[in-house]
Amino acid sequence: MNIINTSLIRAAMLLSITGVTLKSYAQEDNPAEKKTVVAAKQYTQEVNTLANKVSVKKALQTIVDLQPQTLADHILLTEIPAPPYKEMVRAKKYAELLKAAGADSVWTDNVGNVIAKVKGRTGKKTVVLEGHMDTVFPEGTDVKIVHKGDTLYAPGISDDTRALAVVLTVLKAVKKADIKTDADVLFIGAVGEEGQGDLRGVKNMFSDKGPGKIDTYIAVDGTDINMIVHRGLGSHRYRITYKGPGGHSWGSFGLANPHYALAGAIHYWVLAADQFSREKGVRVSYNVGVTGGGTSVNSIPFESWMEVDMRSESPERLAGMDKLLQDAVQKALKEENQLKRFGADLTVDVKLIGDRPSGVEDPGLPFVQRAIATASFLHAEPKLGAESTNANIPISKGVPAVTIGCGGAAGGFHSLGEWWLDDKKAYIATQRALLLLLAEAGVSK
């Protein structure tokens, strides 16, 4: 095919790709995601012993007794907006609630994370229990809860505001039951988990500006009490912008066209990425989520841009998919510059807007085993899985971490119709968070 026809096909292709999710294919399903897993006997016994301690029994019952207050906290926090990068108002209220619950100290770090510390007997270890404060919804979104029977509707009511209420109630239960842990415990409301927040809150916690060495990390996200996320689904996200002089579609005909280059980049990436994603190995995905640019139908655009996402549990597979994108972007740039009849060359800006590291924890790791055992103790059906959550960061750094659910029934995530329902057993997820926290932190009283 000659270069002129290729360019025309690319231009036509661009018209059809706005907002389209491109296909990805799974190669190797993980059996643990499809069946209930069972903890080794020693961890089952350990959790049984823990749960039968007088103080722990009292804390578990306290969680049941606190159900109305947990729901009230949930509603209060949901109706405080927390747009991306603007979590400050919710953070201030959450800090007040954590302090009132009895934390030894509460502070807000340099990026906005709210951190409450309960000192342990020895302090030789630090365990984190965390929910994220941000939602995906922009400033100005109406977050007032609408009640329809027992179901609560509001943007962000499930993801992840319910988790904030869970973390707060666990702290209350620990203090009301007068439980003394061996390890220090940090109860955290994190910023920047969603979208282009790019896990900035938890990244800061594991930097030299964080609260110090963290030994175990429990993230609360999602609602499913059965799911235990022990594998971090990594992702790379880019905003790619082709730029040129632009001009009149007739008077400046012959200039290099950024739209043609963008369409070419998508075309070449899709062809290569589709083949790569079908190859045997760890699953990898690719997506062009947003495109834009141009001023009018009779103007050669001065810029054309797209935002893309790729994901995999395997750093190697993710890197492979990334290279295919970079190659496609440069190939399309070169071809369009060769095609122009006069004028300046196009340039391209490739900006990384999201980098979530991947990682995998051995299911036999004691912490993962305790996560399984605590779920089983409360009659859940634990299953292991992979997701992209705040736990990605500690997992990628070799720090034991899991993500567990906050309970209840929910749907409409990331939509204006998001909803949450107490299915009469939502408190079990809070009890599970308590047991897992205490199993790691140790109970000295």
Number of domains: 2
**CATH H-tier superfamily of the largest domain:** Zn peptidases
What's the number of helices? 12
Sheet of most strands: 6 strands, mixed
Q: Measure the end-to-end span.
A: 77 Å
What is the percentage of strand-forming residues? Answer: 15-25%
User: According to CATH, what is the topology of the largest domain?
Assistant: Aminopeptidase
Task: Provide the residue-averaged pLDDT.
Answer: 93
> In the CATH classification, which architecture of the largest domain applies?
3-Layer(aba) Sandwich
Polypeptide structure, described:
The chain is an alpha+beta fold and 445 residues long. It has two domains: 3-29 and 234-356, 2-Layer Sandwich (Alpha-Beta Plaits); 35-232 and 359-441, Zn peptidases (Aminopeptidase, 3-Layer(aba) Sandwich), CATH 3.40.630. Helices cover 36% and strands 23% of the residues. It is built from twelve helices and 19 strands. It has helices at residues 3-15, 41-51, 54-65, 67-78, 88-100, 161-176, 200-205, 258-278, 315-339, 366-377, 392-396, 427-441, and strands at 105-108, 114-118, 126-132, 146-148, 151-153, 184-190, 216-220, 227-232, 234-243, 247-248, 284-293, 299-300, 303-312, 347-356, 359-360, 383-387, 401-404, 409-411, 419-421. It has a six-stranded mixed beta sheet with strand order 1-2-6-3-7-17. Helix 3 crosses helix 6 (161-176) and helix 3 (54-65) runs antiparallel to helix 12 (427-441). The longest helix has 25 residues, at 315-339. Mean pLDDT is 93; it is low at 1-29.
